């Protein structure tokens, strides 16, 4: 009985981590954090943050929700690798459009770099997932921390604990294996850090 309760508690904790630190949550939060850091007025934040939020989060998440409701996707995390190509492609097109708008309104380099990171990591995940089910949760979590450290300071390094927790949750729920999680971290972290530091 005790073992059963512990397994249920572990599954609940894993589900909470998977939902709270899902890619959709992180790609919503990171551009807004960047926009808040570079904006000198509420108007700038509303303009730059609004563009980033709309094209990096609202449209891509809307595609996922629509796909689930229409039965084209099994779930909003797109656990079936064969279903990932379409939402990832539409999401990347949306982020690319956002980049063009941010360039047009002359958004600061740091914010622009963050959105390029979202695009580059997303494109890399889409490419790998064409052949293998890499963990996008792990890739995006690692990319987020890799960007936050130079953007917000060394204290953001504590986020790596959450990256490990996300990885554990994906394996605990049976959605990924450890190699898939570690591959996500190995792809997302260095790629995000290199891209951001090259552009910011």
UniProtKB/TrEMBL annotation:
<feature type="transmembrane region" description="Helical">
    <location>
        <begin position="178"/>
        <end position="199"/>
    </location>
</feature>
<feature type="transmembrane region" description="Helical">
    <location>
        <begin position="139"/>
        <end position="166"/>
    </location>
</feature>
<keyword id="KW-1133">Transmembrane helix</keyword>
<keyword id="KW-0812">Transmembrane</keyword>
<feature type="domain" description="Phosphatidic acid phosphatase type 2/haloperoxidase">
    <location>
        <begin position="135"/>
        <end position="196"/>
    </location>
</feature>
<dbReference type="InterPro" id="IPR036938">
    <property type="entry name" value="PAP2/HPO_sf"/>
</dbReference>
<keyword id="KW-0472">Membrane</keyword>
<protein>
    <submittedName>
        <fullName>Phosphatase PAP2 family protein</fullName>
    </submittedName>
</protein>
<dbReference type="Pfam" id="PF01569">
    <property type="entry name" value="PAP2"/>
</dbReference>
<feature type="transmembrane region" description="Helical">
    <location>
        <begin position="45"/>
        <end position="68"/>
    </location>
</feature>
<feature type="transmembrane region" description="Helical">
    <location>
        <begin position="111"/>
        <end position="132"/>
    </location>
</feature>
<dbReference type="InterPro" id="IPR000326">
    <property type="entry name" value="PAP2/HPO"/>
</dbReference>
<feature type="transmembrane region" description="Helical">
    <location>
        <begin position="88"/>
        <end position="105"/>
    </location>
</feature>
């Amino acid at each position: 009985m005790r073992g059963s309760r512990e397994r249920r508690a572990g599954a609940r904790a894993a589900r909470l981590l998977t939902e709270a630190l899902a890619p959709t949550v992180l790609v919503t939060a990171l551009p807004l954090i960047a926009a808040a850091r570079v904006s000198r007025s509420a108007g700038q934040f509303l303009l730059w943050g609004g563009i980033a939020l709309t094209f990096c989060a609202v449209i891509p998440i809307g595609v996922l929700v629509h796909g689930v409701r229409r039965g084209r996707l099994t779930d909003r995390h797109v656990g079936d690798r064969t279903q990932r190509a379409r939402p990832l492609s539409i999401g990347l097109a949306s982020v690319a459009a956002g980049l063009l708008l941010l360039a047009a309104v002359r958004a600061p380099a740091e914010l622009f770099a963050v959105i390029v990171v979202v695009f580059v990591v997303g494109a890399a995940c889409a490419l790998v997932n064409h052949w293998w089910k890499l963990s996008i949760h792990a890739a995006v979590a690692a990319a987020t921390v890799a960007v936050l450290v130079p953007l917000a300071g060394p204290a953001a390094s504590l986020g790596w604990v959450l990256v490990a927790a996300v990885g554990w949750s994906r394996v605990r729920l049976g959605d990924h294996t450890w190699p898939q999680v570690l591959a996500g971290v190995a792809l997302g972290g260095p790629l995000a850090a290199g891209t951001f530091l090259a552009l910011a």
